[in-house]
Design brief:
The chain has nine helices and eight strands. By secondary structure, it is of the alpha/beta class. The strands form two sheets. A six-stranded parallel sheet has the order 5-4-1-6-7-8, with helices on both faces. It has a two-stranded antiparallel sheet with strand order 2-3.
Length: about 210
């Protein structure tokens, strides 16, 4: 019997809200001459179950190539400026690793940014795989990303245990479709949500994953 913990990244492992907002506001100003959005407005939009982010952020129903390119060029450098792991995350990952839990990252962010930020913070070595939206045909809430991880670990349903930890309904939906336990992380971008389990702080994950109550 093995234990597999899959983590969302933004709003779960790391607080990246300020840098995302600064890059979005840069595109808003340069390409569209729009006023700046607040961090809260940006993270609320990102975590909304149904939304057109291009329309919300740039007033365009289609994500224009010039906006995408400008955002990615700006964010490549910006993404390291203010990002930080949530309090307790590093210690929890270290404890899960010590107890033999297999871990991976399943994020809808492009993998180039995910790997760059996690390496910058020294968190990348905890994870066997870091899978971003560009590595699959269908991002979360589709379960493809989770299945990629589970296949990598040769997951055996009914024998092994697996969890998807995230702060978004898409994470919980992906977990449900993949047939694993969804753990809603209420310390991140979304303070309220539902899942098979609720973790009020990163420390709760040790009890959920390594405790007797499976």
């Amino acid at each position: 019997m093995r234990k597999i913990a899959l983590f969302d990244m933004d709003g779960t492992l790391i607080d990246s809200g300020l840098d995302i907002t600064l890059s979005i506001n840069y595109v808003r100003k340069v390409n569209y001459d729009l006023e700046a959005l607040s961090v809260q407005a940006v993270v609320d939009a990102i975590n909304a179950p149904k939304r057109n982010l291009s329309e919300i952020f740039y007033g365009s129903t289609l994500y224009e190539e010039s906006a995408r390119k400008l955002f990615e060029e700006h964010y490549y450098h910006q993404c390291l400026q203010n990002v930080a792991p949530y309090e307790g995350i590093r210690e929890v990952l270290d404890e899960l690793h010590r107890q033999g839990v297999l871990m991976g990252v399943a994020t809808n962010a492009p993998s180039i940014f995910a790997k760059r930020m996690l390496a910058h913070l020294g968190l990348d070595l905890f994870f066997q795989q870091i899978i971003g939206a560009d590595n699959v045909d269908n991002p979360k809430p589709h379960p493809q990303m989770l299945h990629r991880h589970l296949d990598h670990y040769v997951y055996r349903s009914g024998t092994d245990y697996a969890w998807m930890i995230g702060d978004n309904s898409k994470d919980m939906d992906a977990a449900s479709q993949a047939g694993i336990v969804g753990v809603f992380a209420s310390w991140g971008f979304s303070k309220e949500g539902s899942g098979d389990r609720i973790a009020a702080s990163p420390g709760d994950l040790v009890d959920i994953i390594c405790g007797k109550d499976q």
